[in-house]
Amino acid sequence: MNRLDKLFAAKKQNVLNLYCTAGYPQLNSTIEVITALQNNGADIIEIGMPYSDPLADGEVIQQSSAVALQNGMTIEVLFNQLRNLRNTPPAGGNGGIPIILMGYMNPILQFGIEKFCAAAKETGVDGIILPDLPMYEFETLYKPLFEKNDLKFIFLVTPETSEERIKKIDALCSGFIYAVSSSSTTGKNKAIEGQEEYFKKLQHMNLKNPVLVGFGIKDKATFTAACKYTNGAIIGTAYIKALENTGNISQTTKEFINSIIG
């Protein structure tokens, strides 16, 4: 069973997904960050694959992406890092925390999408988020490729997404649905507390997939508000900020997660 399936079978509420940028703050920080997240209470780790034109990302994550690219991070380097991670207990085999890769189509097409999916499976990746892959192209071109490699494909919805489209996404999606809290980029959002009607609508639709809220989740209050009507939340910008000037990734991560769920 895919690690995401196992997680959501065991935990229905307050699922904490932490986003980090591969190769940030240093090229070889990726595994240290993942290990710190796994050891301190994160439920899912979402790894951003750095890209020069990240349309859905705000200034902080864009900057982390630029630093990671300058550090020499590539998809190939990331897979080599993850290969080492999954071969090291306790993350080896079917154990360990679910890992999702988030990125954009252009670098993946350059890498080769079949090669990418095979490498993702080999290195223990559980799910993929590609905000710029149209639903139609996923359904008609790529869905069997992701399924063949046991990769959950996660779509985004926003407050403006129609119920008809949400239902279509729910039918195609696997793993979970990423509910963007507002139509914006990461780090620049409306107050989460003001989005209750949107979250209630998703709750009352009885979707087959769990729902995690992202964009604008930055502290215990916003995490709690997002989890009230959904299965959990995703934090990115606030964690990247915490890592920016840290001299101790493990301690910074422990303190950050404790501030959210402690």
Care to describe what's here?
The chain is an alpha/beta fold and 262 residues long. Helix content is 47%, strand content 14%. It contains 12 helices and 9 strands. The protein has helices at residues 3-10, 29-39, 59-71, 75-86, 105-111, 113-122, 135-148, 163-172, 196-204, 220-227, 237-244, 249-261, and strands at 15-21, 44-48, 99-102, 127-129, 152-154, 156-157, 177-180, 211-214, 232-235. The radius of gyration is 17 Å and the shape is globular. The protein starts with a helix and ends with a helix.
Short recap of the structure:
This protein has 262 residues and is an alpha/beta fold.
| Element-by-element helix/strand order | HEHEHHEHHEHEEHEHEHEHH
Strand content: 5-15%
Terminal Cα span: 30 Å
- Strands side by side in the biggest sheet: 5-4-3-2-1-9-8-7-6
Q: Quick one: biggest sheet?
A: 9 strands, parallel
Count every beta strand, where a strand is a DSSP E run of 2 or more residues. 9
List the helices and strands and how they pair.
Blueprint (H helix, E strand, L loop, with lengths): L2 H8 L4 E7 L7 H11 L4 E5 L10 H13 L3 H12 L12 E4 L2 H7 L1 H10 L4 E3 L5 H14 L3 E3 L1 E2 L5 H10 L4 E4 L15 H9 L6 E4 L5 H8 L4 E4 L1 H8 L4 H13 L1
Helix pairs in contact: 2-12
Which key features would you list for this structure?
single chain, 262 residues, alpha/beta, 9-stranded parallel β-sheet, 12 helices, 9 strands, 47% helix, globular
